[in-house]
């Protein structure tokens, strides 16, 4: 068997030197290519201009939206001002997303990236996502109609299902509620089937005051009206003077006097507490006055009795 030998060839130094010189020349020619640098310079300038124009367009459109919403809000038609805030923010977000998307496409075209295949791929991907994310599409459509129909706005107190709180954020996909205890509820818009809005109209505070059966109705009504005198100045949430409707229910030992008061939205609980506090103070003062009068009369009778017995 013949021994196997590796072919050993020594590299030609001249060829190696020529290859290095050729590579260096090509690199230098690319670096010294004036046309290439002009193209890079003009592309950079165009990229900067596109970015600046996009920012300017977003700012101008946002200001136009703000002025339009302010002009609509100052009109003669009475509407919820929070609706304009919500719609304005949504329109500004949509404008920002659209302008930034167009800017990205222009920037990609500036660096010689073919945008057509990307758009076609995005369309196919969007179609696939649409079939697979029907819940997301439902959330977006429901959120759009919530804002369009003015069902509720940012700052409103609403209840949907078992959740009740103040609307902090209305998005196209979710709505964020903050309860009075500080709990934050994030609800998908597609699950909102019915909504109770407590901020669209004035509330009605209803207070039932139990009275002792031996106290006359006229005296009770007089005391309650005296307690409610000037309450609209003490509590600015009360729209007008509360009405004393009369007896709501009664039993052998007591009867209940009902009071109703129209108040601003979301202030029913505080107004009811204010009415109860004022009536309670008046009844306590009346009870203390009667007790003091009885004690004074008893003391006077005692003194008169002692005087007669001593005589």
TrEMBL record:
Domain Mechanosensitive ion channel transmembrane helices 2/3: 95-134
Main localisation: membrane
Record domain Mechanosensitive ion channel MscS: where: 136-199
Cellular localization per UniProt: Cell membrane
UniProt keywords, alphabetically: Cell membrane, Membrane, Transmembrane, Transmembrane helix
Keyword Phosphoprotein: no
UniProt cross-references to Pfam families, sorted A to Z: MS_channel_1st, MS_channel_2nd
This protein's name: Mechanosensitive ion channel family protein
Source organism of the structure: Paenibacillus taichungensis
Lineage, top ranks: Bacteria, Bacillati, Bacillota, Bacilli, Bacillales
């Amino acid at each position: 068997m013949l021994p196997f030998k590796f072919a050993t060839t020594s590299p030609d130094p001249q060829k190696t030197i020529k290859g290095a010189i050729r590579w260096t020349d090509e690199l230098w020619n690319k670096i010294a290519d004036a046309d290439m640098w002009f193209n890079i310079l003009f592309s950079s300038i165009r990229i900067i201009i596109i970015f600046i124009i996009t920012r300017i367009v977003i700012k101008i459109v946002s200001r136009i939206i703000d002025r339009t919403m302010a002009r609509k809000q100052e009109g003669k038609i009475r509407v919820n001002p929070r609706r304009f805030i919500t719609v304005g923010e949504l329109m500004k977000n949509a404008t920002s997303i659209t302008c930034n998307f167009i800017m990205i496409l222009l920037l990609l075209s500036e660096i010689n990236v073919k945008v057509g295949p990307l758009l076609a791929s995005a369309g196919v991907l969007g179609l696939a996502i649409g079939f697979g994310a029907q819940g997301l599409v439902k959330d977006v459509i429901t959120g759009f109609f919530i804002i369009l129909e003015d069902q509720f706005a940012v700052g409103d107190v609403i209840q949907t299902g078992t959740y009740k709180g103040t609307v902090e954020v209305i998005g196209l996909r979710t709505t964020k509620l903050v309860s009075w205890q500080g709990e934050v509820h994030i609800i998908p818009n597609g699950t909102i089937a019915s909504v109770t809005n407590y901020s669209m109209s004035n509330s009605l505070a209803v207070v039932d005051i139990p009275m002792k059966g031996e106290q006359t109705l006229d005296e009770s009504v007089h005391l309650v009206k005296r307690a409610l005198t000037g309450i609209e100045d003490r509590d600015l949430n009360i729209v007008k003077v509360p009405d004393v409707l009369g007896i709501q229910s009664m039993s052998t030992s007591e009867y209940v006097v009902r009071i109703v008061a129209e108040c601003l939205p979301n202030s029913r609980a505080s107004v009811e507490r204010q009415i109860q506090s004022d009536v309670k103070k008046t009844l306590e003062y009346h009870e203390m006055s009667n007790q003091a009068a009885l004690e004074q009369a008893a003391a006077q009778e005692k003194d008169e009795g002692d005087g007669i017995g001593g005589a």
